[in-house]
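Sample 3 of the quickstart, ligand pyridoxal-5'-phosphate:
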Amino acid sequence: MSLNWITPAQRIQQLPAYPFARLDELKAKAREQGLDLIDLGMGNPDGTTPPEVIEAGINALKNPANHGYPPFEGTASFRRAITNWYHRRYGVTLDPDSEALPLLGSKEGLGHLALAYINPGDTVLVPSPSYPVHFRGPVIAGGNVYSLTLKPENNWLIDLAAIPDEVAQQAKILYFNYPSNPTAATAPREFFEEIVAFARKYEILLVHDLCYAELAFDGYQPTSLLEIPGAKEIGVEFHTMSKTYNMAGWRVGFVVGNRHVIQGLRTLKTNLDYGIFAALQAAAETALQLPDSYLQQVQTRYQTRRDFLVNGFNQLGWNLEKTKATMYLWVPVTPGMTSTDFALTVLQQTGVVVTPGNAFGKGGEGYVRISLIADCDRLGEALRRFQEAGIYWDKTQSLQNCKQPSAIHLA
Ligand SMILES: *Cc1c(COP(=O)(O)O)cnc(C)c1O
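Result:
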């Protein structure tokens, strides 16, 4: 007997359509045909986990004490490593027992936080574009997502003054993320001060995603929400080991901040999961203790790629500024095209995979996100194919800019 009469719950049916379907289909087809795809679509770092971290993981794996169920709230020693790291990076003091909670990746925690705090019909403020779980989590929980459309003229910052008073009065939670995926925008400290004042005024829980805490360039240091006085009373902040430490497959992240909110999330999780394998927590602890020279090395790696790709695109007629953080470029599509058309055209004509901006919400229309997850050889090859296929920002303009096409270095 087949089960095709059984339909998924409404909370699943309500989710916005998965925007990558056509792109995935074309990608699969291209792979079948043996085409050489350059996949810059995902946010999956191409580097390897640092050897010290792997070593710590292997040693912990051999210790039978780690083989049983881990403690629900994470190991005491990983929680201490988290709060020590916070103190070292931001000068913020946190209690490892009540103000830090390890997660099975930050995506898990961001999604479950919505289930732990949002009732059906609650208003949730979410920027558009944003990282998908920031709106998909609230939709699954039955919340009413009120989109805060981000604009280039506002440097992709949330325009708090544009939020109607009655919406702010009703809102329960505000998700946000700087340095941002997908826009690569960063927010000055004053913005964090304003958003804390806004949240205190309207009694809104602030959920800040600081996944790119350490992927910043040219000496820029991203701000932690918790550096702002009073933020701990109204906010929590999420972190991941995935990006900076090349540990995306390990599934380790953590949340810090308001103890009541962390307690609520922990209660939900206690009913759904058993936390992270203790051996992985031991490895993650080692990662947080790596010397700053490790960070510099990672930063230089992405910064070199950023410089290379920004220069290349600008030679093709774009006018991109150098991003200050993250592993992404947020690139406007050729005028007259939609994000999806552009991404599909690029894939068909060049074999380069980029992510259409509308995957991150309506506010991402008109842009594509390009990940800096290949070395300069491959990025150069991608640029060469763009040029060959005649994919320029603006043909008339770029013909002037590209007087010396060979100026794009292919090496
Ligand atoms: C990559 C990413 C995450 C996911 O991190 P995991 O810890 O691997 O689940 C969360 N938020 C943003 C903004 C990201 O870019």
